[in-house]
Design brief:
The chain has 371 residues and is mainly α. The chain has one domain. Helix content is 60%, strand content 1%. It has 19 helices and two strands. A two-stranded parallel ribbon has the order 1-2.
């Protein structure tokens, strides 16, 4: 399976421009790109663009000091807030622009390989049942979409998995530091604080309060730096929360209506399969009530996020929702791996409907299904 994954990634390589096809730079935005990017050979798509283009350019200007970055980003304050994986690309590229660009394109691939190994801590793929659950994590729609478009979600779930591992070892301060670091990658990663060991007694609650302060500190410091550059504009963007269940139920309605109108082979069917899958995952978590498990607490936090995100997260076929709640998908499958009995396969199939053919297909001709 790892060989299949790497073979699929290899198809995105182009002589001269390397793996920049994974980033999805739009041809229409070429004139607004950073001068450092325009000077480098890279693939521009005529009709496709995705958010990875912004974070790749942040990797070339990781402190946002060049005024040209304001033209390159749609929302500089919002994109700049998610700086961590631009920094890692800069470090992996040793500060050399050509290397940085390749490092940014490939760090999702590297993260996938590390995660594939790390997840065997909870899901040793030494039986057909466990191998199926491992594959459901590693080939989930949200994770593959992150790899395909060089997004932040794959590296984020890797950091959160490491945080869960330290939480299981009752290393409160290490877990808090990891979640705080992850918060620099995406604000929603701060939900990883749910994995912190649950407190007991007054001393435990004081430790939790201190740990939560550590969690929010890195993002607070970086946000203050962004405020020194953009002032009030540093807070613009990212308003993607709404009334509980409003967008969630709206997506149910639109998906069912679309399937009724266009049939089971239509694009709305993809959205319907995704929302069924995510709903089953949330129901399983509520039903299992494994409060003592850090993965359960983390996954449940993302289940809560699922029902309050704005409709813009659900829009599309199937939209960004599979990436946004990716830790819930991992938590669901990891906890499911511990289940026995015939009900296992019912939960497994219904909870992973997003993996059915068509869900992983890319809107590009000739691109392998797996990515």
């Amino acid at each position: 399976m790892c060989a299949l994954f790497l073979a699929s990634v290899a198809r995105f390589y182009h002589p001269g421009s390397g793996f920049t096809a994974l980033i999805a730079f739009p041809a229409a935005g070429h004139d607004s790109e950073l001068p450092a990017l325009r000077a480098l050979p890279h693939v521009d798509y005529p009709t496709i663009a995705y958010d990875g283009q912004f974070y790749a350019q942040l990797a070339l200007e990781p402190l946002l000091r060049d005024p040209a970055i304001d033209r390159a980003l749609d929302l500089p304050g919002y994109r700049g807030r998610r700086i961590l994986f631009s920094w890692t690309a800069y470090a992996l590229g040793l500060g050399r622009p050509a290397w940085i660009l390749q490092a940014y394109a490939l760090q999702n691939v590297l993260g996938w390989l590390v995660l594939a190994w790390l997840i065997t801590r909870w899901i040793p793929p030494d039986s057909p049942r466990l191998f199926a659950v491992w594959a459901a994590c590693m080939f989930s729609h949200g994770l593959l979409w992150s790899v395909r478009f060089s997004l932040l979600d794959g590296p984020s779930v890797l950091l959160l998995a490491v945080a869960v591992m330290t939480a299981e070892r009752h290393r409160t301060w290490t877990t808090a530091a990891l979640v705080g670091l992850a918060g620099l990658g995406r604000e929603t990663n701060l939900l990883g604080a749910a994995a912190l060991p649950w407190p007991r007694g007054v001393r435990g609650w004081l430790m939790l309060a201190a740990a939560l302060a550590i969690v929010v500190l890195p993002l607070a410091i970086w946000q203050d730096y962004l405020f020194s550059i953009y002032r009030s504009r540093s807070l613009v963007g990212g308003n993607q929360l709404t009334t509980p269940f409003r967008a969630y139920l709206g997506n149910w309605h639109s998906a069912l209506s679309g399937v009724q109108l266009h049939g089971s082979r239509s694009l709305p069917m993809q959205s319907l399969l995704v929302i069924i899958s995510l709903t089953v995952q949330a129901v399983f978590l509520i039903w299992s009530r494994q409060f003592d498990q850090p993965w359960w607490r983390l996954a449940l936090a993302y289940a809560g996020l699922m029902v309050i995100v704005h409709s813009v997260v659900w829009d599309g076929y199937p939209g960004a929702i599979t990436r946004v709640v990716l830790p819930m998908t991992f938590g669901f499958n990891i906890l499911l791996a511990q289940q026995r009995g015939r009900a296992f396969w019912i939960w497994f199939v219904l909870g992973n409907l997003h993996m059915l053919p068509g869900q992983g297909a890319m809107p590009l001709p000739g691109v392998p299904l797996v990515l």
